[in-house]
Protein backbone atom coordinates (compact mmCIF):
# COMPACT_ATOMS: atom_id res chain seq x y z
CA UNK A 1 0.00 0.00 0.00
CA UNK A 2 1.17 3.55 -0.73
CA UNK A 3 2.39 5.55 2.30
CA UNK A 4 0.09 8.38 1.28
CA UNK A 5 -2.83 5.94 1.65
CA UNK A 6 -1.80 4.55 5.06
CA UNK A 7 -4.08 6.83 7.09
CA UNK A 8 -6.55 7.91 4.39
CA UNK A 9 -8.33 11.25 4.11
CA UNK A 10 -9.57 13.89 1.70
CA UNK A 11 -9.52 17.65 1.33
CA UNK A 12 -11.06 19.95 -1.29
CA UNK A 13 -11.10 23.74 -1.76
CA UNK A 14 -13.12 25.90 -4.14
CA UNK A 15 -13.31 29.52 -5.24
CA UNK A 16 -16.59 31.41 -5.13
CA UNK A 17 -17.70 34.99 -5.59
CA UNK A 18 -15.62 36.99 -3.08
CA UNK A 19 -15.31 33.87 -0.98
CA UNK A 20 -13.48 30.55 -0.77
CA UNK A 21 -14.43 27.27 0.83
CA UNK A 22 -12.30 24.43 2.13
CA UNK A 23 -13.54 21.07 3.35
CA UNK A 24 -12.02 17.99 4.98
CA UNK A 25 -13.16 14.59 6.14
CA UNK A 26 -12.61 13.63 9.79
CA UNK A 27 -11.35 10.06 9.63
CA UNK A 28 -8.14 8.92 11.19
CA UNK A 29 -7.43 5.28 10.44
CA UNK A 30 -4.65 2.79 10.26
CA UNK A 31 -5.11 1.04 6.93
CA UNK A 32 -8.62 -0.42 7.03
CA UNK A 33 -9.27 0.20 10.73
CA UNK A 34 -10.90 3.49 11.75
CA UNK A 35 -9.30 4.72 14.97
CA UNK A 36 -10.88 8.14 15.37
CA UNK A 37 -13.70 10.10 13.77
CA UNK A 38 -12.41 13.48 14.96
CA UNK A 39 -9.27 14.14 12.97
CA UNK A 40 -9.88 17.05 10.61
CA UNK A 41 -6.97 17.88 8.33
CA UNK A 42 -7.68 21.60 7.81
CA UNK A 43 -6.04 24.22 10.01
CA UNK A 44 -6.45 27.97 10.30
CA UNK A 45 -3.22 29.84 9.67
CA UNK A 46 -4.58 33.40 9.53
CA UNK A 47 -7.91 35.25 9.81
CA UNK A 48 -8.78 34.35 6.20
CA UNK A 49 -6.15 31.71 5.43
CA UNK A 50 -6.65 27.94 5.80
CA UNK A 51 -4.46 25.00 4.87
CA UNK A 52 -5.45 21.36 4.41
CA UNK A 53 -2.80 18.68 4.98
CA UNK A 54 -4.04 15.25 3.90
CA UNK A 55 -1.64 12.32 3.76
CA UNK A 56 0.36 10.57 6.45
CA UNK A 57 -1.17 11.68 9.76
CA UNK A 58 2.11 12.14 11.62
CA UNK A 59 3.29 14.49 8.88
CA UNK A 60 -0.08 16.32 8.99
CA UNK A 61 0.71 17.22 12.58
CA UNK A 62 4.42 17.96 12.06
CA UNK A 63 4.01 20.08 8.94
CA UNK A 64 1.25 22.08 10.63
CA UNK A 65 3.53 22.75 13.61
CA UNK A 66 6.51 23.73 11.46
CA UNK A 67 4.34 25.89 9.22
CA UNK A 68 2.87 27.70 12.22
CA UNK A 69 6.40 28.30 13.50
CA UNK A 70 7.63 29.82 10.23
CA UNK A 71 4.50 31.90 9.81
CA UNK A 72 4.69 33.29 13.36
CA UNK A 73 8.30 34.36 12.81
CA UNK A 74 7.39 35.99 9.49
CA UNK A 75 4.56 37.95 11.06
CA UNK A 76 6.73 39.06 13.97
CA UNK A 77 9.60 40.19 11.74
CA UNK A 78 7.51 41.78 8.98
CA UNK A 79 4.84 43.07 11.36
CA UNK A 80 2.08 42.34 8.85
CA UNK A 81 -0.25 39.50 7.86
CA UNK A 82 1.04 36.93 5.42
CA UNK A 83 -0.68 36.81 2.04
CA UNK A 84 -1.93 33.46 0.65
CA UNK A 85 0.47 33.50 -2.34
CA UNK A 86 3.40 34.06 0.01
CA UNK A 87 2.19 31.31 2.34
CA UNK A 88 2.04 29.01 -0.67
CA UNK A 89 5.63 29.84 -1.58
CA UNK A 90 6.71 29.20 2.02
CA UNK A 91 4.99 25.81 2.16
CA UNK A 92 6.50 24.88 -1.20
CA UNK A 93 9.95 25.73 0.14
CA UNK A 94 9.34 23.77 3.35
CA UNK A 95 8.43 20.67 1.34
CA UNK A 96 11.23 20.96 -1.25
CA UNK A 97 13.81 21.26 1.54
CA UNK A 98 12.95 17.60 2.12
CA UNK A 99 13.19 16.70 -1.58
CA UNK A 100 14.90 13.32 -1.03
CA UNK A 101 13.10 12.35 2.16
CA UNK A 102 9.75 14.10 1.83
CA UNK A 103 6.84 14.76 4.11
CA UNK A 104 3.98 12.54 2.89
CA UNK A 105 1.52 15.39 2.57
CA UNK A 106 -0.17 16.82 -0.53
CA UNK A 107 -1.42 20.16 0.79
CA UNK A 108 -4.33 22.37 -0.23
CA UNK A 109 -4.43 26.09 0.53
CA UNK A 110 -7.50 28.32 0.54
CA UNK A 111 -7.72 31.97 1.50
CA UNK A 112 -8.71 35.53 0.79
CA UNK A 113 -5.90 38.03 0.30
CA UNK A 114 -6.04 40.28 3.40
CA UNK A 115 -5.33 43.42 1.34
CA UNK A 116 -7.39 43.04 -1.84
CA UNK A 117 -9.82 40.26 -0.77
CA UNK A 118 -9.16 38.20 -3.90
CA UNK A 119 -10.00 34.48 -3.52
CA UNK A 120 -7.02 32.12 -3.75
CA UNK A 121 -6.71 28.34 -3.89
CA UNK A 122 -3.60 26.26 -4.40
CA UNK A 123 -2.50 22.64 -4.14
CA UNK A 124 0.89 20.96 -4.29
CA UNK A 125 2.47 17.57 -4.57
CA UNK A 126 4.50 16.16 -1.70
CA UNK A 127 7.72 17.90 -2.82
CA UNK A 128 6.17 21.32 -3.18
CA UNK A 129 5.22 21.82 -6.82
CA UNK A 130 2.43 24.41 -6.67
CA UNK A 131 -0.69 24.53 -8.80
CA UNK A 132 -2.84 27.67 -8.69
CA UNK A 133 -6.00 27.14 -10.74
CA UNK A 134 -8.98 29.41 -11.15
CA UNK A 135 -11.59 26.96 -9.90
CA UNK A 136 -10.95 24.20 -7.36
CA UNK A 137 -8.24 22.00 -5.90
CA UNK A 138 -8.42 18.48 -4.50
CA UNK A 139 -6.17 16.12 -2.56
CA UNK A 140 -6.25 12.84 -0.66
CA UNK A 141 -7.00 9.15 -1.26
CA UNK A 142 -10.17 9.92 -3.23
CA UNK A 143 -8.70 12.69 -5.37
CA UNK A 144 -9.87 11.00 -8.60
CA UNK A 145 -13.41 10.85 -7.26
CA UNK A 146 -13.11 14.48 -6.10
CA UNK A 147 -11.96 15.64 -9.55
CA UNK A 148 -15.04 14.04 -11.06
CA UNK A 149 -17.42 15.58 -8.51
CA UNK A 150 -15.86 19.05 -8.69
CA UNK A 151 -15.72 19.11 -12.49
CA UNK A 152 -19.40 18.23 -12.59
CA UNK A 153 -20.69 20.50 -9.80
CA UNK A 154 -18.50 23.62 -9.81
CA UNK A 155 -19.40 26.76 -11.68
CA UNK A 156 -17.89 30.24 -11.37
CA UNK A 157 -19.21 32.99 -9.09
CA UNK A 158 -21.05 30.84 -6.57
CA UNK A 159 -22.33 32.78 -3.56
CA UNK A 160 -21.27 31.57 -0.08
CA UNK A 161 -24.37 29.47 0.65
CA UNK A 162 -24.34 27.98 -2.87
CA UNK A 163 -20.61 27.28 -2.52
CA UNK A 164 -21.29 25.48 0.77
CA UNK A 165 -23.75 23.12 -0.93
CA UNK A 166 -21.43 22.51 -3.86
CA UNK A 167 -18.30 21.76 -1.85
CA UNK A 168 -20.20 19.61 0.66
CA UNK A 169 -21.77 17.44 -2.05
CA UNK A 170 -18.43 17.13 -3.84
CA UNK A 171 -16.61 15.94 -0.70
CA UNK A 172 -19.33 13.69 0.67
CA UNK A 173 -20.09 11.84 -2.56
CA UNK A 174 -16.42 11.39 -3.41
CA UNK A 175 -15.61 10.09 0.09
CA UNK A 176 -18.58 7.69 -0.11
CA UNK A 177 -16.76 5.90 -2.94
CA UNK A 178 -13.52 5.65 -0.94
CA UNK A 179 -13.10 2.98 1.72
CA UNK A 180 -10.58 5.05 3.73
CA UNK A 181 -12.07 8.56 3.66
CA UNK A 182 -15.14 10.00 5.31
CA UNK A 183 -16.53 9.29 8.78
CA UNK A 184 -17.62 12.93 9.20
CA UNK A 185 -16.72 16.21 7.48
CA UNK A 186 -16.01 19.87 8.28
CA UNK A 187 -16.57 22.70 5.80
CA UNK A 188 -15.21 26.25 6.21
CA UNK A 189 -16.71 29.12 4.19
CA UNK A 190 -14.30 32.05 4.21
CA UNK A 191 -15.66 35.52 3.47
CA UNK A 192 -14.14 38.97 3.91
CA UNK A 193 -15.73 39.58 7.30
CA UNK A 194 -16.72 36.16 8.59
CA UNK A 195 -15.79 32.50 8.67
CA UNK A 196 -18.49 29.84 8.85
CA UNK A 197 -17.47 26.43 10.19
CA UNK A 198 -20.03 23.67 9.57
CA UNK A 199 -19.76 20.05 10.62
CA UNK A 200 -21.56 17.99 7.99
CA UNK A 201 -23.36 14.78 8.96
CA UNK A 202 -22.09 11.99 6.71
CA UNK A 203 -22.26 8.22 6.42
CA UNK A 204 -20.10 6.62 9.11
CA UNK A 205 -18.93 3.69 7.07
CA UNK B 1 3.34 -0.50 -37.60
CA UNK B 2 3.81 0.74 -34.07
CA UNK B 3 1.03 0.18 -31.59
CA UNK B 4 0.99 1.53 -28.08
CA UNK B 5 -0.47 -0.55 -25.32
CA UNK B 6 -1.27 0.47 -21.78
CA UNK B 7 -0.90 -2.42 -19.44
CA UNK B 8 -3.45 -1.59 -16.78
CA UNK B 9 -1.91 -4.09 -14.44
CA UNK B 10 1.64 -2.85 -14.18
CA UNK B 11 1.45 0.84 -15.18
CA UNK B 12 2.56 2.73 -12.05
CA UNK B 13 1.01 5.98 -13.25
CA UNK B 14 -2.48 4.50 -12.99
CA UNK B 15 -4.30 4.46 -9.66
CA UNK B 16 -3.67 1.36 -7.58
CA UNK B 17 -7.33 0.36 -7.57
CA UNK B 18 -7.33 -0.31 -11.31
CA UNK B 19 -5.15 -3.37 -10.84
CA UNK B 20 -6.21 -4.50 -7.38
CA UNK B 21 -8.31 -7.67 -7.29
CA UNK B 22 -11.97 -7.31 -6.30
CA UNK B 23 -12.31 -8.38 -2.71
CA UNK B 24 -15.21 -8.34 -0.30
CA UNK B 25 -13.40 -6.89 2.68
CA UNK B 26 -16.51 -7.54 4.58
CA UNK B 27 -18.52 -8.05 7.70
CA UNK B 28 -20.72 -11.17 7.70
CA UNK B 29 -22.62 -12.93 10.44
CA UNK B 30 -24.99 -15.80 11.09
CA UNK B 31 -26.93 -16.42 14.29
CA UNK B 32 -29.24 -19.27 15.38
CA UNK B 33 -32.52 -18.41 17.09
CA UNK B 34 -35.48 -20.44 18.27
CA UNK B 35 -36.81 -21.93 15.02
CA UNK B 36 -34.33 -20.68 12.44
CA UNK B 37 -31.23 -18.73 11.60
CA UNK B 38 -30.62 -15.04 10.86
CA UNK B 39 -27.88 -14.19 8.38
CA UNK B 40 -26.49 -10.74 7.70
CA UNK B 41 -23.82 -8.92 5.69
CA UNK B 42 -22.68 -5.43 4.72
CA UNK B 43 -22.75 -4.38 1.05
CA UNK B 44 -19.30 -3.04 0.17
CA UNK B 45 -16.96 -4.44 -2.51
CA UNK B 46 -13.58 -2.75 -2.88
CA UNK B 47 -10.79 -2.81 -5.45
CA UNK B 48 -7.94 -1.41 -3.43
CA UNK B 49 -9.49 1.54 -1.59
CA UNK B 50 -12.03 2.30 -4.35
CA UNK B 51 -15.55 1.17 -3.57
CA UNK B 52 -16.47 -0.75 -6.68
CA UNK B 53 -19.96 -1.71 -5.53
CA UNK B 54 -21.75 -0.11 -2.57
CA UNK B 55 -24.91 -2.25 -2.80
CA UNK B 56 -23.43 -5.75 -3.13
CA UNK B 57 -25.49 -8.77 -2.11
CA UNK B 58 -23.16 -11.07 -0.21
CA UNK B 59 -25.96 -13.39 0.95
CA UNK B 60 -26.16 -15.91 -1.82
CA UNK B 61 -28.87 -18.51 -2.29
CA UNK B 62 -27.66 -22.07 -2.60
CA UNK B 63 -31.03 -23.77 -2.27
CA UNK B 64 -34.46 -22.58 -1.12
CA UNK B 65 -33.50 -23.02 2.51
CA UNK B 66 -29.69 -22.87 2.45
CA UNK B 67 -27.80 -19.60 2.01
CA UNK B 68 -24.13 -18.67 2.26
CA UNK B 69 -22.43 -15.48 3.44
CA UNK B 70 -19.36 -14.69 1.31
CA UNK B 71 -16.13 -13.01 2.38
CA UNK B 72 -12.69 -12.86 0.79
CA UNK B 73 -12.14 -12.67 -2.93
CA UNK B 74 -15.39 -11.82 -4.75
CA UNK B 75 -14.44 -13.87 -7.81
CA UNK B 76 -13.47 -16.96 -5.82
CA UNK B 77 -16.57 -16.97 -3.62
CA UNK B 78 -18.93 -16.39 -6.54
CA UNK B 79 -17.36 -19.24 -8.49
CA UNK B 80 -17.47 -21.61 -5.49
CA UNK B 81 -21.09 -20.75 -4.71
CA UNK B 82 -22.09 -21.39 -8.32
CA UNK B 83 -20.40 -24.80 -8.30
CA UNK B 84 -21.99 -25.80 -4.97
CA UNK B 85 -25.42 -24.67 -6.21
CA UNK B 86 -24.98 -26.85 -9.30
CA UNK B 87 -24.01 -29.90 -7.26
CA UNK B 88 -26.84 -29.49 -4.75
CA UNK B 89 -29.39 -28.99 -7.51
CA UNK B 90 -28.36 -32.31 -8.99
CA UNK B 91 -28.26 -33.99 -5.56
CA UNK B 92 -31.76 -32.72 -4.73
CA UNK B 93 -33.15 -34.39 -7.85
CA UNK B 94 -31.47 -37.70 -7.05
CA UNK B 95 -32.45 -37.52 -3.35
CA UNK B 96 -36.05 -36.41 -3.86
CA UNK B 97 -35.87 -34.21 -0.78
CA UNK B 98 -34.44 -30.79 0.04
CA UNK B 99 -30.69 -31.18 0.65
CA UNK B 100 -29.27 -31.04 4.18
CA UNK B 101 -27.29 -28.01 5.34
CA UNK B 102 -24.43 -30.29 6.35
CA UNK B 103 -24.29 -31.61 2.78
CA UNK B 104 -23.94 -28.08 1.42
CA UNK B 105 -21.23 -27.40 3.98
CA UNK B 106 -19.41 -30.59 2.98
CA UNK B 107 -19.37 -29.61 -0.70
CA UNK B 108 -18.12 -26.11 0.17
CA UNK B 109 -15.44 -27.74 2.28
CA UNK B 110 -14.29 -30.05 -0.51
CA UNK B 111 -13.68 -27.08 -2.77
CA UNK B 112 -12.22 -24.76 -0.15
CA UNK B 113 -9.84 -27.39 1.25
CA UNK B 114 -8.65 -29.06 -1.95
CA UNK B 115 -8.02 -25.76 -3.72
CA UNK B 116 -6.84 -23.93 -0.58
CA UNK B 117 -3.61 -22.69 -2.20
CA UNK B 118 -5.44 -21.01 -5.05
CA UNK B 119 -8.45 -19.58 -3.22
CA UNK B 120 -9.14 -16.80 -0.77
CA UNK B 121 -12.61 -17.54 0.57
CA UNK B 122 -14.19 -17.36 4.03
CA UNK B 123 -17.76 -18.64 3.93
CA UNK B 124 -20.63 -19.06 6.38
CA UNK B 125 -23.15 -21.71 5.31
CA UNK B 126 -26.49 -21.29 7.05
CA UNK B 127 -29.92 -22.81 6.61
CA UNK B 128 -32.71 -25.00 7.84
CA UNK B 129 -33.43 -28.66 7.16
CA UNK B 130 -35.79 -31.31 8.52
CA UNK B 131 -33.06 -33.43 10.15
CA UNK B 132 -31.23 -30.92 12.39
CA UNK B 133 -33.27 -27.73 12.11
CA UNK B 134 -31.38 -24.45 12.04
CA UNK B 135 -27.64 -24.83 11.46
CA UNK B 136 -24.62 -22.65 10.77
CA UNK B 137 -21.34 -24.04 9.44
CA UNK B 138 -18.32 -21.74 9.40
CA UNK B 139 -15.70 -22.47 6.70
CA UNK B 140 -12.78 -20.07 7.18
CA UNK B 141 -9.77 -19.73 4.85
CA UNK B 142 -8.00 -23.08 4.61
CA UNK B 143 -11.15 -25.16 4.48
CA UNK B 144 -11.97 -26.42 7.97
CA UNK B 145 -15.64 -26.81 8.92
CA UNK B 146 -17.05 -25.92 12.30
CA UNK B 147 -20.72 -25.92 13.29
CA UNK B 148 -21.54 -22.93 15.53
CA UNK B 149 -24.61 -21.33 17.08
CA UNK B 150 -23.31 -17.90 16.18
CA UNK B 151 -20.54 -17.08 13.73
CA UNK B 152 -18.91 -13.94 12.34
CA UNK B 153 -16.53 -13.49 9.42
CA UNK B 154 -14.78 -11.07 7.12
CA UNK B 155 -12.32 -8.29 7.83
CA UNK B 156 -14.85 -6.42 9.98
CA UNK B 157 -15.43 -9.35 12.31
CA UNK B 158 -12.20 -8.71 14.24
CA UNK B 159 -13.77 -5.62 15.79
CA UNK B 160 -16.85 -7.38 17.15
CA UNK B 161 -15.71 -10.66 18.70
CA UNK B 162 -16.02 -9.15 22.18
CA UNK B 163 -19.46 -7.71 21.47
CA UNK B 164 -20.74 -11.05 20.16
CA UNK B 165 -19.29 -13.03 23.08
CA UNK B 166 -20.89 -10.61 25.55
CA UNK B 167 -24.34 -10.39 23.91
CA UNK B 168 -25.22 -13.71 22.29
CA UNK B 169 -27.86 -15.80 24.03
CA UNK B 170 -29.13 -19.18 22.78
CA UNK B 171 -32.85 -19.52 21.89
CA UNK B 172 -33.52 -15.84 21.16
CA UNK B 173 -36.70 -14.81 19.37
CA UNK B 174 -36.56 -13.91 15.69
CA UNK B 175 -36.77 -10.17 16.43
CA UNK B 176 -34.05 -10.34 19.10
CA UNK B 177 -31.77 -12.23 16.72
CA UNK B 178 -32.37 -9.73 13.88
CA UNK B 179 -31.57 -6.84 16.21
CA UNK B 180 -28.44 -8.61 17.49
CA UNK B 181 -27.14 -9.20 13.95
CA UNK B 182 -27.96 -5.63 12.89
CA UNK B 183 -26.24 -4.11 15.93
CA UNK B 184 -23.15 -6.29 15.51
CA UNK B 185 -22.76 -5.54 11.81
CA UNK B 186 -23.30 -1.82 12.42
CA UNK B 187 -20.44 -1.80 14.93
CA UNK B 188 -18.20 -3.65 12.49
CA UNK B 189 -19.08 -1.24 9.67
CA UNK B 190 -18.31 1.72 11.93
CA UNK B 191 -14.73 0.55 12.47
CA UNK B 192 -13.79 -1.39 9.33
CA UNK B 193 -12.97 0.66 6.23
CA UNK B 194 -13.57 -2.34 4.00
CA UNK B 195 -17.18 -2.75 5.22
CA UNK B 196 -20.08 -0.39 4.68
CA UNK B 197 -23.18 0.49 2.70
CA UNK B 198 -26.39 -1.19 3.82
CA UNK B 199 -27.03 -4.15 6.10
CA UNK B 200 -28.69 -7.02 4.26
CA UNK B 201 -30.52 -9.58 6.40
CA UNK B 202 -32.04 -12.98 5.72
CA UNK B 203 -34.21 -15.09 8.04
CA UNK B 204 -34.29 -18.81 7.21
CA UNK B 205 -36.91 -20.98 8.89
CA UNK B 206 -38.98 -24.07 8.12
CA UNK B 207 -41.34 -21.76 6.22
CA UNK B 208 -38.68 -20.42 3.88
CA UNK B 209 -36.60 -17.27 3.59
CA UNK B 210 -37.43 -13.61 4.15
CA UNK B 211 -34.93 -11.02 2.93
CA UNK B 212 -34.69 -7.43 4.16
CA UNK B 213 -32.42 -4.39 3.87
CA UNK B 214 -31.55 -1.74 6.42
CA UNK B 215 -30.35 1.46 4.77
CA UNK B 216 -27.39 3.44 6.11
CA UNK B 217 -29.41 6.18 7.78
CA UNK B 218 -31.69 3.64 9.52
CA UNK B 219 -28.85 1.77 11.21
CA UNK B 220 -28.68 1.97 15.03
CA UNK B 221 -26.61 4.82 16.43
CA UNK B 222 -23.60 4.08 18.56
CA UNK B 223 -20.90 6.28 20.09
CA UNK B 224 -19.01 7.74 17.17
CA UNK B 225 -16.16 9.46 18.98
Condensed summary:
The complex is a heterodimer of chains A (205) and B (225). With 205 residues, chain A is α+β, with helices and mostly antiparallel strands.
Q: The CATH topology of chain A, please? A: Glutamine Phosphoribosylpyrophosphate, subunit 1, domain 1
Can you tell me the CATH superfamily of chain A? Aminohydrolase, N-terminal nucleophile (Ntn) domain
The oligomeric state is heterodimer
Structural class of chain B: alpha+beta
Number of domains of chain B: 1
Low-pLDDT parts of chain B are none
Instruction: Estimate percent helicity of chain A.
Output: 25-40%
Write structural notes for this entry.
Chain B: One of its GO terms (molecular function) is threonine-type endopeptidase activity. The complex is a heterodimer of chains A (205) and B (225). Chain A is of the alpha+beta class and 205 residues long. Helices cover 30% and strands 30% of the residues of chain A. Chain A has one domain: 4-Layer Sandwich (Glutamine Phosphoribosylpyrophosphate, subunit 1, domain 1), CATH 3.60.20. Chain A contains 4 helices and 12 strands. In chain A, the strands form 3 sheets. Chain A has a 5-stranded antiparallel β-sheet, covered by helices on one side. The longest helix of chain A has 22 residues, at 57-78. Chain A is globular, with a radius of gyration of 16 Å. Chain A starts with 9 loop residues before the first strand and ends in a 5-residue tail after the last strand. The mean pLDDT of chain A is 97. Chain B is globular and about 60 Å long. With 225 residues, chain B is of the alpha+beta class. Helices cover 27% and strands 32% of the residues of chain B. Chain B has 4 helices and 13 strands. In chain B, the strands form 2 sheets. In chain B, strands 1, 4, 5, 6, 7, 8, 9 and 10 form an 8-stranded antiparallel β-sheet that branches. The mean pLDDT of chain B is 93. Classes of the chains: A alpha+beta (205), B alpha+beta (225). Chain A binds chain B through residues 1-2, 5, 8, 29, 31-34, 36-38, 141-142, 144-145, 176-180, 183-184, 203-205, and chain B through 15-16, 25, 42, 44, 46, 49-51, 54, 155, 159, 189-197, 216, 224-225.
Amino acid sequence: MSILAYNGGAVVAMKGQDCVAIATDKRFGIQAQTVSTNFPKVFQMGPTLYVGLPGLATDTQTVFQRLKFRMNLYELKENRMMRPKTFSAMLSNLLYERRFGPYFIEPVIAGLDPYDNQPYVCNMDLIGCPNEPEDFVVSGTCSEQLYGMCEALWEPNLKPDELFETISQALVNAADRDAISGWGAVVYIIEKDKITEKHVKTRMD
Amino acid sequence: MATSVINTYSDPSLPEWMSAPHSTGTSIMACEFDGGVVIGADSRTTTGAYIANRVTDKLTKITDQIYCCRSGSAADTQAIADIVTYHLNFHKMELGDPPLVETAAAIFRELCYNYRDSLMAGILVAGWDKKKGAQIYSIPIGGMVQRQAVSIGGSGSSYVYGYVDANFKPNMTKEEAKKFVTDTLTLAILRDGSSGGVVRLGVITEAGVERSVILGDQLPKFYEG
